[in-house]
Specification:
mainly beta, 2% helix, nine-stranded antiparallel β-sheet, six-stranded antiparallel β-sheet
Length: 243
């Protein structure tokens, strides 16, 4: 399998390699560690490790942010409300909403940030920026079970778009047993994060089994497919295209 060189791949993951999400970050006592998997002005994807008791103080971001807990437990305060998130749960913090993060246990966290960065005058408005809708089809400032945001349909593949932008998309997919998508070629790299069940991921002529808590990158310009071959399968699909 040959991967062309480019500057839009997912940092921290070797294409075509199945790995546990938490393996991307090695835990260290009393530290916060971050990995920039995608870093653009208007779209970014980060993986974080927070040791127990560590966190991020109150901050205001001018983008919609989706936080998804991989492992551990976090207290996320958005505005005046505190929320406790457990593994498999997620929450969207709307742009302009003051929020903070406190790790209640050793924490592995995924952060997707999307939105047009504000100019100097807009940055002064703070919470007035919260009328943007960069992440859609999910209630904001509410805790959700990520896999429960989409349901299975008999003999079909269901999808729910969370982010739809020119170079960056995020979609939830639910595949009934024996159904799937592909083979096809995409101009961008595609990150599959398994949420439920087990999926068969074909890249070129190779097949990989991916189960809950694991991920794999399907490289650009190589034929690939995803199926719920032996089991129903839910996944989050993040696609990053070249600029």
């Amino acid at each position: 399998m040959e991967k062309k060189k480019d500057n839009f791949h997912f940092n921290g993951i070797s294409p075509g390699t199945v790995m546990e999400m938490k393996q991307m970050l090695t835990p260290y006592p009393h530290q916060v560690i971050s990995l920039q998997m995608i870093n653009r002005v208007n779209e970014s994807l980060h993986a974080f490790f927070f040791d127990k008791g560590e966190g991020i103080s109150t901050d205001i971001q001018h983008q919609d942010i989706l936080y998804a807990v991989i492992e551990g437990q976090v207290q996320l305060q958005a505005g005046e409300t505190r929320h406790c998130l457990n593994p498999g749960e997620c929450m969207v913090v709307p742009s302009g909403c003051p929020h903070s993060i406190d790790a209640l246990a050793a924490l592995w966290l995924l952060q997707i940030s999307v939105g047009e960065m504000a100019d100097a005058s807009e940055r002064k408005r703070g919470s007035e920026m919260n009328n943007k809708d960069y992440i859609k089809n999910v209630d904001k400032a509410c805790v959700h079970n990520l896999s429960e945001l989409i349901g299975y349909q008999d003999h079909k593949v269901a999808s729910l778009t969370l982010v739809q932008r020119g170079l960056f998309t995020t979609t939830l997919m639910a595949m009934d047993k024996g159904t799937g998508v592909g083979p096809h070629i995409c101009e961008g790299d595609a990150l599959v994060i398994a949420l439920e069940g087990e999926g068969d991921v074909m890249i070129g002529e190779e097949h990989h089994q991916v189960k809950m808590g694991e991920c794999i990158v399907m490289p650009a310009d190589i034929p690939h497919a995803v199926r719920g071959e032996n089991d129903r399968f839910k996944m989050m699909l993040i696609v990053s295209k070249p600029e």
